[in-house]
Amino acid sequence: MDTPVKSNNGATLPETAEQTLYEVRKKIYPRAVRGKFAAWRWTFVLLTQLVFYGAPWLSWNDRQAVLFDLVSRKFYIFGLVFWPQDIVYLTVLLIICAYSLFLFTAVAGRLWCGFACPQTVYTEVFMWIERRIEGDRPARMKLDRQPLSPRKFGLKAAKHGVWIALALWTGFTFVGYFTPIHVLWREVMTLHTGSWETFWVLFYGFATYGNAGWMREQVCKYMCPYARFQSVMFDPDTLIITYDPDRGEPRGSRGRSVDYKAKGLGDCVDCGICVQACPTGLDIRNGLQYECIGCAACIDGCNQVMDKMGYPQGLIRYSTEKAMQGHYSAERIVKRVFRPRVLVYTAILWLIIVVSAVTLYERVPLKVDVIRDRGNVMHGSDDPEVQNVYRLQIMNTQEVARDVRISVAGVDGIKLEAEAQPIRVPATSSRVVAVRVEAPRASLKDRSNRIHFTVEAADPSHPGTAPLTVVEKAALVIP
Amino acid sequence: MRLQKLIWVLWPSFIAAGAAEALFFTVFDPEELPFFGTIVGASRIATYSVGFFLFWAFAAFSSSLTCFFQRGSDEINRCPLPPTARPLGCPKRSDENASCR
Question: From the CB of residue A256, how many other CB atoms can be counted at a distance below 10 Å?
Fold first, then answer.
């Protein structure tokens, strides 16, 4: 080849650039920074992971507190039990998540991405491991340039070993949400895990290792749909991470004691720390870019430099488009947070939360489906009694056994025949009860007559409490 | 480029398969699902897993067709220039049958 290859944007590629998954990508070695936002991120890392790794080990009512039991098709979340029929609550949960995302994004951009997204959280943890083993940015870059040596091999093996161990633990925890984790743990210890469980532990572990160890910012840049449509949720009052060019420019290096203002320089010392700290490798001084995940590492990095130089902090800071143009005060920026868009989002979000919480609280933990047995008509057309057979599916969704009594009404002289009542329906289970309903032909006005079943379910362990009652309609049909 | 296309196909179909899986198996219980007139004998976990991969496969098929059909003519046609006439720096100067991309 006579001349170096040019990439799409015309930049000459360095020889070290590698063609990885999505584009010609230069490996990013994010520099570790300390500061307010790094502390917040670690707080969220610890909180979310405490919940994720810890929740499956908790117990409630002698069973796993949080268990999405796929085998018995029931989801347990502490005191709540969800059946497939409760899918509406899942839908509502998704709507609440979506609205929260809209709200947070409108207020302060990609808070989710920068602080709570699993991709960010695991990347942060994996990078922390990498730093402990290989050192910070310069040490890692140096190590990667070196030829393979026993030391390099040892460091890389240690890093990947710890990464894989953490990834497998993550995969195990993930599967522990769907199959009882104490049982799973015993199976793992005795190497007797089911084949599908093993497969999903490895699958999720591999995804964690790949995403947090190798893919990192590429997941945010190319795989995440949210990154692509975030801009529609922004407005000129949205707090975003902003470089203040009025204060920073013209940028340039200078000594600490130099009167840089006399030399016509701005506050930016052009040290490049903001670029080195960025996990997606962008230069925030070029303005808002879709690659920015709002992690605020550049703010922390820049503030460290400003402190060292003795300049005020906040050359890079959370600000809004309007605030930058109009030189708003901090109070005015905060005041603009309570703008109509945010207030409407908040109101709608709270409305959905309150309505769904009330319906969840009010729902009757007893469901009845009535199916008329069409084939089962035993009597002739001149018989004085009409008989219909029904199958009642009684679902006891709570974790207490119920004694059920079924009665029928709606037509004069109607009678019900069933197995001996009360019928015991065990905790969180459903039972099908066949009943025969008989009514005198003389009291039936039409071919199809509206009747209703009343199902009363008492709690035998608390005899004094009122039984749950469900009334279900059905049709009594003249054959 | 091949790897890139593989991800273009596999990733969106993975998301779609996840959504399809959740919806489908919320509504249909694998133990009551007829399979050519009989009930699928496998455990629920096995049915869920196989179901997921079936959804993924179908979605990936659709994604790969999208990828296949969106190729431009410069990707399909052979480069009109003979190899020696291609500009310096063209990575495909030695490939007689190369297309532009």
Answer: 9
